[in-house]
Amino acid sequence: MPKAQSIADEVRRRIVELKWRQGERIPDEAELAVEFDAARATVNKALQVLADEGLLDRKRRAGTRVAINPVSKATFSIPIVREQVEEAGMAYSHRVVAQRLSPVPAQIATRLGLPEGELLVHLRAVHYADGKPYQLEERWLNPRAAPGLQQADLRDLNANEWLVRNAPYLRAEFFFSAENADRRDARLLQTRQGQALLILHRTTWNDLGPITTVRVAFQPGHRFGAGEGRDHAG
Amino acid sequence: MPKAQSIADEVRRRIVELKWRQGERIPDEAELAVEFDAARATVNKALQVLADEGLLDRKRRAGTRVAINPVSKATFSIPIVREQVEEAGMAYSHRVVAQRLSPVPAQIATRLGLPEGELLVHLRAVHYADGKPYQLEERWLNPRAAPGLQQADLRDLNANEWLVRNAPYLRAEFFFSAENADRRDARLLQTRQGQALLILHRTTWNDLGPITTVRVAFQPGHRFGAGEGRDHAG
């Protein structure tokens, strides 16, 4: 939709240059359609792009206003660790430190919405780049939401890849936090105890229930980020 | 588009239930239009939703296939700190520790694409929730991309809010990392030196150049996250 995109770009420019200021009502679709020599549906599409970005507030009767305190939305990709390492030109390997059926502890059970003590697959693995620890994962997997899991050999295909291919999710939650490396983190990541580590917790669900929850501890100094690119949205 | 949404839901269900497996070609638009008793444009819209989610690969001639190694995309909002604190039912306050025109150091200059030593506004501020440190920000602001900045009193309206109202951005980059609190971090966040801190670096640009770059250090234990919600996409 190049026409809608160019209208969105122009409206965004007017907001950025403060020609249309926060809280102000902008001209309605019909007026903009005349100004831009475009169909109303095209103007509508352009304004929706900006509403999705958080720059405009659209109300059916009250019309469209420049958003007050627009919320910045950022999108990032959660990469497949093997691809990430190989794209950086390094050799990927991984080692499963532990894989066993274990009763799920209370904190994890709460996160998954399962009863405490239910038997899940507990997995601890280290991913390496050129033989150096790249990230450490501690994962709980629910065989009831991932049929075939108990027959899978996660030493060959890693859990990340197995899940991507065999258990697509419908819903996911994640959060970042920072933790001081404990004794085990330090040993497996080959760093010192107390080192600040970036941690990503992520949980996924499908129709059958929770699939997996994972705590990923990145190597010290790791940066996890992306561009937001309002100009690329829509 | 409730019809397109329901078609997208059904196609997503077939992928999640492995009826259509990774790498497989799915029926073409015309066949799906017959099956779902819908217009081809509606089917096209539904498939585009799933392509945007990363579940389908669409190629003009080769048709549509279930994506191999679908990339998970996560979206989160970067909240306005005052609103975040107040929504949690706490009283917000903030204190500007330092605000002065300073020559920009090399590392920050590189990130901004500006010459080292250029004069920018350097700001250090602490945000409090119920009187306890909530986050610490160290910020560089470029007056050339934010006209009016030098006249603004950032002790009253905080920089975050001033920027949101007066300098909308076109492009942004961010990354998360973890750092051990240094002496100043520890003093301003009222924690111990060495405590692991979650750090968010964020830089924004408009047509005039870089607007600002900020290092936000969150209080110890802070979690930053969101739901991904493939089922809500599109």
TrEMBL record, chains A, B:
Pfam family for this entry, one: UTRA
Keywords noted in UniProt: DNA-binding, Plasmid, Transcription, Transcription regulation
Source species, domain of life: Bacteria
Sequence ranges assigned to domain HTH gntR-type in this UniProt record: 1-69
Keyword Transcription regulation appears in the UniProt entry: yes
Signal peptide residue numbers: none
GO molecular function: DNA binding; DNA-binding transcription factor activity
Family annotation (PANTHER family): MANNOSYL-D-GLYCERATE TRANSPORT/METABOLISM SYSTEM REPRESSOR MNGR-RELATED (PTHR44846), TRANSCRIPTIONAL REGULATOR PHNF-RELATED (PTHR44846:SF16)
Protein name per Swiss-Prot or TrEMBL: UTRA domain-containing protein
Organism per entry: Sinorhizobium mexicanum
